[in-house]
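Below is a filled-in request sheet from our internal design queue. Each sheet records the structural input a requester submitted and the sequence that came back. We keep these sheets so that new team members can see what a complete request looks like end to end.

REQUESTER: design group, bay 2
PRIORITY: normal
MODE: inverse folding
CHAIN LENGTH: 235
BACKBONE (tokenized):
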């Protein structure tokens, strides 16, 4: 079955449980700034207990327990080769959240949370995009690769996520057999940067690119995982 036919009924069911979440933790609509949320999620990723963090940061333990469950679920997800989909080093730390070390990464993270002020955890387009990310993400590269016939799926992903990052950072890479003009006709989003990649096979890749060295940015994966952790309700 083509990826574009992902069933959205689960998303709609999740909305019932998420309907009271009219803000996203870390935005100005919540009582907690994003640096604090980032610090808490890093410690949960490192297996600190919700009980300890609740005391340390005077934070609701129920919310921490939910985020912990979401992190554990992400760590358990496997790819088609039965390898962890998100764990960065399965033999050592088993963390899933990349380290953000550059000023550029941190600036984009701040921009990301400011953009999230306009959204909530029950935003169906964001939830849809996050499910697509879970299915498409790979530990081997920072972006998302879509098959040539998955343009509608890529559009659904971009509909939920594109506006959360500055336009100038988005890049699309194409395999040689794909026509850029024809693909751009079907993707109604502005990509200021594009390239041909011989490593791709009848597919295209969406990613965020550094303005300093043209390398893919880890903040893209970080932000997607953080949103999954914060916005996935109880199931």
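RETURNED SEQUENCE:
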């Amino acid at each position: 079955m083509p990826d574009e036919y992902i069933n959205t009924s689960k998303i709609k069911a999740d909305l019932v449980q998420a309907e009271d979440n009219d803000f996203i933790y870390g935005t100005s609509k919540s009582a907690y700034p994003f640096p604090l949320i980032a610090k808490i999620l890093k410690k949960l990723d490192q297996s600190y207990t919700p009980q300890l963090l609740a005391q340390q940061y005077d934070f609701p333990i129920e919310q921490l327990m939910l985020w912990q469950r979401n992190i554990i679920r992400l760590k358990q997800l496997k790819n088609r080769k039965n390898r962890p989909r998100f764990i960065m080093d399965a033999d050592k730390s088993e963390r899933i959240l990349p380290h953000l070390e550059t000023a550029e990464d941190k600036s984009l993270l701040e921009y990301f949370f400011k953009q999230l002020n306009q959204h909530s955890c029950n935003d169906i387009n964001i939830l849809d995009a996050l499910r697509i990310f879970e299915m498409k993400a790979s530990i081997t590269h920072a972006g998302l690769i879509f098959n040539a016939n998955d343009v509608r799926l890529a559009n659904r992903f971009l509909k939920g996520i594109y506006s959360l990052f500055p336009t100038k950072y988005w890049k699309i890479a194409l395999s040689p057999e794909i026509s850029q003009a024809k693909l751009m006709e079907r993707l109604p989003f502005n990509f200021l940067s594009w390239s041909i990649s011989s490593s791709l096979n009848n597919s295209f890749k969406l990613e965020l690119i550094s303005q300093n060295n043209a390398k893919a940015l880890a903040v893209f994966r970080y932000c997607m995982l953080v949103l999954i952790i914060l916005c996935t309700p109880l199931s």
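SHEET NOTES:
- Confidence is low (pLDDT under 50) at residues 1-20.
- Strands lie at 144-147, 170-174, 193-196, 203-208.
FILED BY: M.R.
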